[in-house]
Design goal:
Mean pLDDT: 96
Number of strands: 8
Number of helices: 9
CATH superfamily: P-loop containing nucleotide triphosphate hydrolases
Structural class: alpha/beta
Helix content: 40-55%
Distance between the termini: 27 Å
Strand order of the largest sheet: 1-8-7-2-6-3
Number of domains: 1
Shape: globular
Strand content: 15-25%
CATH class: Alpha Beta
Length: about 190
């Protein structure tokens, strides 16, 4: 089982953590937080969407190839990785020195997606694979966000319990929590 930490404890842990895993629902700010942490602490930023899952034209890589790429990424010594697929928690969680669960309410996540679409629609955002311009969200994607706590969060919890023995976990439940986490960690210019 993971070890729950307060925001202040997790911020102190960041100062020595060399591998940080950021998980959560789409639109919660995982990528923004991850990029800020990577830049501030001099860690490699790894995006599951950009580096593992997608090929140009929104084509998904073969699952076996994705797993092979992910094995190589998690083997590296210093990284911040964002991405939420709990089916790969067996590779990612045990290697992390800290897991950050960005667990915002559904309306905050939907607002985050709306801001992302407004900013990037038709272009490729920094954490996405080349050739994958930001689309308008479809019903399946919006349903995933709306039902995340009921349908997806229990699987996250099970996989964290299964693969996170002794791994510190902090849960950020609002953008205010995210800003406080960044501020306590001494990260300047981080948005949440």
């Amino acid at each position: 089982m993971t070890v729950s930490m307060t925001i202040e404890e997790a911020a102190r842990r960041l100062k020595t953590a060399e591998r940080v895993l950021v998980i959560g629902c789409s639109g919660g700010g995982k990528s923004t937080l991850s990029r800020a942490l990577a830049a501030h602490f001099g860690l490699e930023y790894q995006s599951i969407d950009r580096d593992v899952r997608w090929l140009p034209g929104w084509c998904e890589r073969d699952p076996a190839e994705r797993r092979q790429i992910l094995e190589a990424l998690v083997a590296r010594e210093r990284w911040v990785m964002d991405g939420s697929n709990p089916s790969t928690f067996d590779l990612r969680v045990p290697r992390a020195h800290l897991v950050v669960w960005v667990r915002l309410p559904r309306l905050a996540c939907l607002a985050g997606v709306a801001r992302r679409v407004w900013r990037y629609h038709g272009t490729v955002r920094p954490e996405m694979a080349p050739g994958c311009p930001e689309p308008l969200p479809d019903r399946t994607f919006l349903d995933y966000i709306w039902n995340f706590e009921r349908k997806s969060a229990p699987g996250f919890i099970r996989k964290l319990e299964q693969h996170g023995a002794g791994i510190p976990l902090v849960t950020l439940e609002s953008r205010t929590d995210t800003r406080r986490f960044l501020r306590c960690a001494g990260v300047e210019g981080g948005r949440g």
